[in-house]
Write a structure and sequence with these properties.
mainly alpha; two-stranded antiparallel sheet; two-stranded antiparallel ribbon; 65% helix; 2% strand
Length: 565
């Protein structure tokens, strides 16, 4: 393994740690309506947005009204984006593909069953897809903040105002960061124009069509909002989206930035920064393990290729390892790190083909998604997903000591546990049931059979239900069957947990504070971090081990290595 394969993740984590507290504190102030350095410039825009929406930001909502606002706003987004695709200049998008894409971008999934540069007009990319990149990320942020308010409030019937949260998250957090990142990307050579395809003459004298478009602006929010949908079909493997190792590193930082910062936001809002760092530690412990396994598995190479006599050792003359499906300008280290990062979050962007990874290398992004993408998860979704697991961990700790569990001064009772169970179980039920249906009825679209074909199906529905959006490859998903079934998985996987999370927030907000006692389990210490990590891993392992054993695990054993690792 090259030194850079070790140094790059360490430097990335160090930068994330350094930026987490300041950005998290800023987000906390913004979402609580406090004044920041951006208010002199943006406060008039915020007030104008409220007038246009006819919203009083001081008029707060109960959890049910908040949930209705989230669902209503998202349904409207699906309708508008669907119609925009159908009437766009040039060829319209087929009805079921348009519906699938509309649901995909509204749910922060960005699953793409089409070639972006060939299918979507510039107006659709800008006014439809890019707008939903902002909106879906802002919805995730709003729901996470609403849950934290539920933890901190006492005897309250409200958890905030969704419309105010939506405007603040977009205006003060997502837009400024996206502007900075877009300018950086533009300076590094990412395309930003309104040009159509240009015919150019290559070095060999052939003619090649090079598509232009407003790429840098969409690339910025694609990463910062953990959306992942690329302007081009090749996503971040395309040099117009991701020209060099520096842009690749900055994209990784952008993907992790907001999910990590929200742990500090949580710590500040609950009045204990230690609580936030505990959540951060669990998230990035899981991320670090997945990155290390992915890079190591790909650097070891493919045992089938090794049996054929090919030299896969790294040397001065070759990168070594399994370079199939990877960009030479990034290599194995940056490709493995990208795969682990984009699936540990809900970004779903790719700079290599996950379908071409070794069985163990491909197991990493699959498991990351199946854990619920809480390591660190998406913009907002990662925090509220991890807090649901934390609630379950507190409940289990209470059972161990034989007393009613308490969390941040709130007693955890039957209602909260039932809602947490619903939020956690929606994804595995959706993934396993729909994978089973597709295995029986939809396997004609598979490019591979056997264990690898099963992994392709599992990955597709896991990616949809967890709102990740990356694809394993080899699955021809642009069919009526998959467009419809994956669309349902995306919608259910996004909004049933959201409603359950908001229900938890409302239930907790209505409770009074319970004083900590001798038997109260401390949730700001390493012991709780260990318990929380175990809960996340065990829930995922118990749920998905059988299907993983039939997919990537048995594929690794069949590859001829005789062992998994």
């Amino acid at each position: 393994m090259f030194l850079g394969d070790v140094v790059q993740p360490v430097v990335l984590l160090a930068l994330v740690v350094a930026l987490t507290a300041p950005l998290g504190g800023f987000i906390a102030r913004v979402m609580e309506g406090q004044r920041t350095f951006l208010h002199p410039a943006l406060a008039p825009v915020e007030r104008l947005a409220y007038r246009v929406l006819r919203v009083d930001p001081a008029a707060e909502q109960g959890w049910a009204a908040y949930a209705r606002s989230v669902i209503g706003f998202s349904v409207a987004g699906v309708v508008v984006l669907y119609l925009l695709q159908r009437v766009q200049p040039g060829p319209g998008v087929a009805p079921l593909l348009a519906l699938n894409t509309a649901i995909s971008f509204v749910t922060n999934t960005n699953w793409q069953s089409y070639a972006g540069e060939q299918t979507m007009a510039h107006v659709t990319q800008m006014a439809g897809l890019a707008v939903q990149n902002f909106a879906s990320a802002a919805v995730g942020l709003a729901v996470a903040i609403a849950l934290v308010r539920g933890l901190t409030r006492r005897r309250s019937a409200t958890i905030g105002n969704f419309w105010a949260d939506l405007v603040r998250a977009t205006l003060y957090v997502l837009l400024p960061l996206s502007l900075l990142l877009a300018v950086f990307m533009l300076g590094r050579g990412v395309v930003q124009s309104f040009d159509g395809p240009r015919d150019v003459t290559t070095v060999q004298g052939a003619t090649q069509s090079l598509p232009g478009g407003p790429v840098a602006s969409q690339e910025a929010i694609k990463e910062l909002g953990t959306n992942g949908g690329g302007f081009y079909n090749a996503n971040s493997a395309h040099p117009y989206e991701n020209p060099d190792p520096l842009t690749n590193f900055v994209q990784l930082l952008a993907i992790l930035l907001i999910p990590a910062a929200l742990t500090a936001t949580y710590g500040r809002m609950v009045g204990s920064r230690r609580q936030g760092w505990v959540i951060f530690a669990v998230m990035f412990l899981l991320w670090g393990i997945s990155a290390g396994v992915a890079i190591g598995a790909e650097q070891r190479g493919n045992p089938i290729v090794a049996r054929a006599g090919a030299d896969q050792a790294a040397s001065a003359g070759q990168a070594g390892g399994n370079m199939e499906g990877k960009e030479t300008r990034f290599g194995i280290g940056a490709s493995g790190l990208y795969a682990a990062t984009t699936t540990a979050t809900s970004a779903g962007a790719v700079n290599s083909s996950h379908d071409s990874f070794t069985p163990v290398g491909g197991l990493v992004p699959t498991v990351n998604i199946l854990l619920g993408e809480v390591s660190p998860g998406g913009a907002g979704a990662g925090l509220y997903g991890m807090l649901v697991f934390a609630l379950l961990a507190v409940f289990l700790a209470g059972l161990m000591v034989g007393r009613t569990p308490e969390w941040l001064g709130k007693k955890i009772q039957a209602r909260e546990v039932k809602l947490a169970g619903l939020a956690i179980l929606v994804m595995p039920v959706t993934v396993l049931v729909m994978t089973g249906i597709a295995a029986i009825a939809g396997t004609g679209a598979l490019g591979n059979g056997g264990p690898h074909g099963l992994t392709e199906l599992l990955y597709a529905f896991a990616s949809a239900a967890n709102n990740n959006g990356s694809a394993f490859g080899g699955l021809s998903a642009n069919t009526p069957f998959f467009n419809l079934l994956l669309g349902v998985a995306m919608w259910v996987g996004r909004f049933l947990p959201v409603v359950a999370v908001l229900g938890i927030a409302g239930s907790l907000a209505a409770k009074d504070a319970a004083p900590a006692g001798a038997g109260t389990f401390p949730t700001g210490k390493p012991l709780f971090a260990g318990l929380l990590t175990a809960v996340v891993v065990i829930v995922g392992a118990l749920t998905f081990f059988p299907v993983l054993a039939l997919g990537p695990i048995v594929e690794s054993l069949l590859a001829g290595s005789g062992r998994l690792f």
